[in-house]
Sequence to fold (916 residues):
Amino acid sequence: MKLTSITGLGVVGASMLESFKNISDSPVETNSPRFNMSGYAAPRLKTVRIGFIGLGNRGIRAVNRIPHIEGVEINAICDLRSDKVDAANKALEKAGQKPDTYRGGMEEWKKVCERKDIDLIYITTPWELHTPMAVYAMNHGKHVCVEVPAATTVDECWQLVETSEKTKKHCMMLENCCYDFFELLTLNMARQGLFGEIIHCEGAYLHDLLDQNFSKSYYADFWRLKENYTRKGNLYPTHGLGPVCQVLNINRGDQMDYLVSMSGNDFMMNEKAKSLAKADPFYNQFVGKSYNGNMNTTTIRTKKGKTIMLQHDVTSPRPYSRIHLVSGTKGTAQKFPLPGKISFGHDEWAGAEDMAKLEKQFTPPIVAKIGEMAKRIGGHGGMDLIMDWRTIDCLRNGLPLDQDVYDAALWSAIWPLSEKSLASRSNSVDVPDFTRGAWRSNTPIDLSLSKGGTTKVI
Amino acid sequence: MKLTSITGLGVVGASMLESFKNISDSPVETNSPRFNMSGYAAPRLKTVRIGFIGLGNRGIRAVNRIPHIEGVEINAICDLRSDKVDAANKALEKAGQKPDTYRGGMEEWKKVCERKDIDLIYITTPWELHTPMAVYAMNHGKHVCVEVPAATTVDECWQLVETSEKTKKHCMMLENCCYDFFELLTLNMARQGLFGEIIHCEGAYLHDLLDQNFSKSYYADFWRLKENYTRKGNLYPTHGLGPVCQVLNINRGDQMDYLVSMSGNDFMMNEKAKSLAKADPFYNQFVGKSYNGNMNTTTIRTKKGKTIMLQHDVTSPRPYSRIHLVSGTKGTAQKFPLPGKISFGHDEWAGAEDMAKLEKQFTPPIVAKIGEMAKRIGGHGGMDLIMDWRTIDCLRNGLPLDQDVYDAALWSAIWPLSEKSLASRSNSVDVPDFTRGAWRSNTPIDLSLSKGGTTKVI
Fold:
């Protein structure tokens, strides 16, 4: 599969350079947006008709989850690989859905976007395809849910923003970690003022994917490994970043100002390639590549003087962590390296009994409503189902989505911006304001279910 | 007490500017050192004769600890405040020591340095006095132990280096955290290769000192609070940094290359001043000051492509943390936010039973020798006594000290260097090589007690 032939964006290296170039060409915030998608409520849909593009790791799981939600109709599924299509089709038939199937051709996905009987395109393909597919779908009148990261260059981020504003179609990035239980709990507590004013947050994606990246079957045609030797920086920033941006009301009351990014060398990936190549000459093609540094640390400052420390390491033998630290003038929360803890002073973290009390007292309405059901159905412990349910429920009730196109663009932009900082000896880089100044008056997201919440989970 | 009148270095703001200026004027590494103090063993001393300068918070504790070590003679103690001198003298008399006392005058400390019957000056005074006192002591033929940070500007760092090289006197910064139990354990394990090649480390000083900083008695004449509104950046970098620099063999096989630093705003200190001033107009003098940002994150890259993430927050209501993360190609260790954990894979941290086994198997020789005794005598749980014992034992056996003047200079320099980065929108700043290239051949420190360890603890 030659990705670049589909996107028409040229080789990855070239698109990287484009992203650098385009930062200075970006619209400045003195231009007001053509249409502000933050808080935008699209006309309500009684039934949400969905087309799925990409039926690999993330896609098949979504296909298995989403029929549990009331009011969805899956009308099309698409993948290059016939076996993936068959597997998804079989699962959907069991769930009473009868989608048309698209397979094989490099342009088949466009047919899904062009159908008249679809409201939402759900994109779970390799990273380089996210923006081209999302833009095409919106331009054909479809709302979009797109896997993380939504974009791989700053230029792509602006393409998403401008297309969503022009078409008035939602472009929601599927940042599922915003719907994990401790993240929802801390957001709810932050909203209720328990941490006081937030001073500093941390997020991360520390997840050892070394074996998966070098697997012949896990990521089709080694697409993720290739990203790791053609690009640099924090390639996967959104899981740690999304939840803390919501706590900090980024794009909605505060905005990122500038960032600095630093990577060390690669100590893991080339060694892995060399080790595999000893037993299997196939792997010689991956020896001596210019791999991304194993550990990246990016620090972001906001207009209101808060900071975010964000890390990325997908190769070192470390226990999984997204850190999820929220530090405020009255208290602190931290999820990793051990189960979520909260403190309201400098002496110690709340013990198990106090934590249970806090969790009970501050259970977010969305968790109270479908948390148990979500845990039963699953998807990263339940958060994926909560995310899908919330999205469908908002579309069915004509409510704004929690994550709009500005979030998709900004959270994804950390990748190319971190790359730009690295290219200049970690000097600071201004973060584009994708809301073009609207962050000052945009209102924070509503997870309180003060509206909506009517959709059933089956 | 007007500190600047003693040091003759001018107002703090001016010395800050000096430090900026002096970075570019610094000796470059193509000049070999006049004398390489790394690994230098001074002539052995059967008895180590000590003079103490500064008998406040840290001083009185040292005075209480050190007589437990064989072969020391405390010949002089000095403080501006007569009550502090009396208290220290009383404690020393009980311990069978008969020091001469110096008090009151602003130049009394110089008399201690000028005595012929002293080998080691132990300096525990406010930060601004550390370098002037250490330099004066070395110039009068004395070894020096000096509290952290050893210097407050890059110029002072070079003063320490040049004076130590010229006089061949040890200048050891009292970085006690290098001698804490988990730090010693991870250093020992790192040396034995258990973490593989180290990729990334983290350290921090997250310690809520808000009440102490605004106390009328805790820090004499609010000296530490004043540092927090006349200076910026990571004002206190060494506790988190020292132990990971030893793990990374910084100054001894690797060297820092450049750093970036970012702070948020102050959300705590001015609010505290305003709140105190409501009840006590005395505090009006501290309202509206330009306080250092509460949270500082500094990231450092080494010549060999490793990274260090270092944080400083002395005001937020967070549980104490120095993080102490060591991440390598084979394993990971992390001490905070919960008790020290080790992992050799990506699945999970070792449980209590496995941790106990690891601690037993890899107990460092220094801990096996005096760990239990140190815990009994105390000082931050024992680490202070281990540090003092090791220092005295090296001096008595004619061995190099674990922390030399290059460590004192480099670890302290992070403060002014972080300040410089902050002043240029967090752009990167080159770190001076205080070893002037000798880091390439300097050998790692020896905590194995393959030599020394003969001094008794009483």
